[in-house]
Write a structure and sequence with these properties.
Ribose 5-phosphate Isomerase B, Chain: A, 5-stranded parallel sheet, 16% strand
Length: 146
């Protein structure tokens, strides 16, 4: 599975650590930036880059990092084909995969340590969508909003 990863300056350190960690697991990881610390960059620009990749490669997954995780998750969820979760715990992300079929995980570098982010990310990547009828029905209702 291909994984796209991106961050603004406020998530650069955690993004780079997660990228290195995923490479040690032989994951197909594609870094979309930021590549250098630039306090003037804006997270929506990196979210858009990732969203464009996911539009073309629907089986891929995405990882976004900013200061809180909130900004990138709000921006990502503006794209109809993205279901992003702001990852604050292992249980939340497992539920987000099983029940909501999330395809983008978001982290806040300011609030989630690398050690915790690794555990959360591993749980998210290992969890599949349950495909239960009630969850498919609910996701269909959300799609109809769009």
């Amino acid at each position: 599975m291909k994984i796209f990863i991106a961050s603004d300056h406020a998530g650069l350190e955690l993004k780079n650590k997660l990228k290195r960690f995923l490479k040690t697991q032989d994951r197909d990881i594609r870094d979309l930036g930021a590549f250098n610390y630039d306090k003037q960059d804006d997270y929506p620009d990196y979210v858009e880059k990732l969203a464009k990749k996911l539009k073309k490669e629907r089986q891929a997954k995405g990882i976004l990092v900013c200061s809180s995780g909130v900004g990138v998750s709000l921006a990502a969820n503006k794209f109809s084909y993205i279901r992003a979760v702001n990852a604050c715990s292992k249980n939340i992300v497992i539920s987000s995969r099983k029940d909501n079929n999330t395809n983008v995980i978001c982290f806040g570098q300011k609030y989630v340590s690398f050690k915790k982010a690794k555990k959360i990310l591993q749980a998210w990547l290992k969890t599949d969508f349950s495909k239960q009828e009630r969850h498919k029905r609910r996701l269909k209702k959300i799609e109809n909003y769009e």
